[in-house]
C-alpha cells in the first residue's frame, strides 16, 4: 500500500475549477466566463504588441544573462512599479520612504506582504470585504493573519453597502489591517466613489487602521492608469503608512509570467530600509528570489516613453472592449424583455459583472447552455464577444424566467 493512501481528495479551486468543468464539456458552443483573463473579440488570448516588442529587445541584447536577481528583484522594475501606482511625483517616493520588492504577481505580493505583517506588525487581524476574491482569505490565513470581514456589497441595490462598510470599520480594533481593492472590486465590480474613498480614508486614519491595497486591475477598469490609482494615492498623500500589492497579469497581459510588486509606504526612509530587510527574510526561505523575464519586460516598457505610451493605448483598447461588452449584454437583455433590472451590468466596472444569478441558475446555464461561471454568479466580461453575447443573453433570459 502507498504511504499516501490515506490522503483525501482535495476540492477543486472554486475559480480554476470552472475551467476544469469547461474543458470537459464537448459542446462547440461552450463559453468560459469563469477565469479573469482577457480575450480578443475572436475569443483568443492576447499578447500586447508592446510586450512582443520588449521581448524582442530583450532577446537581441547579448549583454543579458540569466543570473539570479537579488532577493528583492529587479531594482529598475521596483522603482518604476512604485512610480506607476503612487504617481511619478509622489512625495513618499521622493523622500525614499517606500520599500518595494518584486514578487510573484499579485498573489505573491499579497502573500509576502501579509507574512511580513504577521511577523512584524502588532495587530494580526485583517478585515477583508464581503465578498472578495476567493484566494484572499486563504492567502492571509496561511500567512498567519486572522481574517475578519467587513460589509461591502448590497445585493438589494447591487451596489456598495457604504453604511455597513463604515460601521464595520468603525468597530474594528485599533490598528487592524484592512484589505482594500484599489479599483475594479472582484467579484462585484462595485467601487466606492472618490468622495466615499475620502470618507473611508478619514475613518481609517482616525482609528489607526492599516490599509493594504490590492491593485490587480490598474488601468483595466477605466482605461486610465492614473484614474485607477486614485484611491491608493489618496491614502499615500496624507503621509501615513500603507501597503500595496500590484499585479501586471491583467494590465500588461503577463498572467503566466507571474510579475508583480509589493510596496510598503513608511513614514521615514530609515524605517523603509528596515522594512525591506525584513521583507528579504520573508522571501528568502519562500522562493529565494523572483524570476527575471517578466520583470524585464515590464521595466523595458515602463522606462521607454514611446513604449509606455503604446502600452497605455493597448490597455485602453482592452478596457474599452470590456465596457462595450457591458453595453451589448445590457442591450441584449433589454431586447429580450428579460425580467429584472440589469442596469448594474453597465454600472459595475472592471473585468467582472456580479450578475445576481444564484447558484441554481448558474448550474442551469452550464447544463443547458454550456456557459460556465463561478457559483456566485460572477461573469468575466473580458471573456465575452459580440458573437457569444446573444447566446449568453438567451441563457440568462431562460434562467430567470
Ligand atoms: N487580487 C485580485 C482581486 C484578483 O482578482 C487577482 C486575480 O484574479 C489577483 C489579486 C492576483 O492575480 P495574479 O496573482 O495573477 O496577479
Automatic annotation (TrEMBL):
One Pfam family this sequence matches: Aminotran_1_2
Domain Aminotransferase class I/classII large intervals: 30-396
One of the GO biological process terms: amino acid metabolic process
CDD domains found in the cross-reference section: AAT_like
Transmembrane segments: none
Superkingdom of origin organism: Eukaryota
Signal peptide: none
Entry EC no(s): 2.6.1.1
Catalytic function, reaction form: L-aspartate + 2-oxoglutarate = oxaloacetate + L-glutamate
Cofactor: pyridoxal 5'-phosphate
Record key words, sorted: Aminotransferase, Pyridoxal phosphate, Transferase
GO MF, one annotated term: L-aspartate:2-oxoglutarate aminotransferase activity
Keyword field contains Transferase: yes
Gene Ontology CC, one term: mitochondrion
Transferase among keywords: yes
Similarity-based family: Belongs to the class-I pyridoxal-phosphate-dependent aminotransferase family.
Assembly mode: Homodimer.
Remaining remarks: In eukaryotes there are cytoplasmic, mitochondrial and chloroplastic isozymes.
Name this polypeptide is given: Aspartate aminotransferase
